[in-house]
Write a structure and sequence with these properties.
InterPro entries: Formyl_transferase-like_C_sf, MPG, MPG_sf
Helix content: 10-25%
Shape: globular
Pfam families: Pur_DNA_glyco
Largest sheet: 8 strands, antiparallel
Number of helices: 3
Number of strands: 8
EC number: 3.2.2.-
Order of helices and strands: HEEEEEHHEEE
Distance between the termini: 55 Å
CATH architecture: Roll
Protein name: Putative 3-methyladenine DNA glycosylase
Radius of gyration: 16 Å
Keywords: DNA damage, DNA repair, Hydrolase
Structural class: alpha+beta
DNA sequence: TGGGAGATCAGA
DNA sequence: CTGATCTCCCAC
């Protein structure tokens, strides 16, 4: 049960569960929407082979090495955008992947961005869908979450409880680490899937 | 409810 | 060539 925002400079495995229930507001070109975070994953920290920062700084992951409280956005599978909250001390890359949430404001805009197909609970289910529902893209990479900018992170509106924990989704390395946390009973939480290596393309 | 395949591209 | 994914389609 947390009240305010967690201290983002703490170790990522402590910060991650503290982000559950927090609110993330995003202003994009086509509108403003707010989301209640219901599922997260920790990356980085001490030698995490599943982290984008595992092999050091690159143009893509440089935001992860910066100060806590900024948004790290990357392109996934050439199709989706995924958003992370950078944590820890400057220089030591670590971040919390936002995997799912419940849209609490601007659901009309979110619906417009996601299309008619998905059910209400699927609006921001899964990291790619979450980013799309909020209108997050490369423009938001590096955004300061604690100021009055386009992306803002705010404390939970109500007490948070019922936190559950388990292995991360869709990764092949260090797949056994229980670095995913979610709010039990929340319909927006991703279904667990093991990582599957693609076999090959014919010919 | 869950497994399998395709889409599509940036990173190393 | 692989991947911190999603959606559609099919079997059970």
């Amino acid at each position: 049960m947390s009240l305010g925002l967690p201290d983002l400079t703490c170790p990522v495995t402590e910060v991650a569960p503290g982000l559950l229930g927090c609110l993330l507001g995003v202003r994009a070109e086509d509108g403003w929407a707010v989301l209640r975070i219901t599922e997260v994953e920790a990356y980085g920290g001490d030698g995490d082979p599943a982290s984008h920062a595992y092999k050091g700084v690159t143009p893509r992951n440089q935001v992860m090495f910066g100060p806590a409280g900024h948004l790290y956005v990357y392109r996934s599978h050439g199709i989706h955008w995924c958003a992370n909250v950078v944590t820890g001390r400057e220089g030591e890359a670590s971040a919390v992947l936002l995997r799912a949430g419940e849209v609490v404001e601007g659901s009309d805009v979110a619906r417009q961005r996601r299309g008619e197909r998905p059910k209400p609970r699927d609006l921001a289910r899964g990291p790619g869908n979450l980013a799309r529902a909020l209108g997050i893209n490369a423009d938001h990479d590096g955004a300061d979450l604690l100021g009055q900018g386009a992306v803002r992170l705010e404390p939970p509106a109500t007490a948070v409880g019922g936190i559950e924990r388990g292995p991360r989704v869709g990764i092949s390395r260090a797949a056994d680490r229980p670095w995913r946390w979610w709010l039990g009973g929340e319909p927006s939480v991703s279904a667990y899937r093991k990582a599957v290596r693609r076999v090959r393309t014919a010919t």
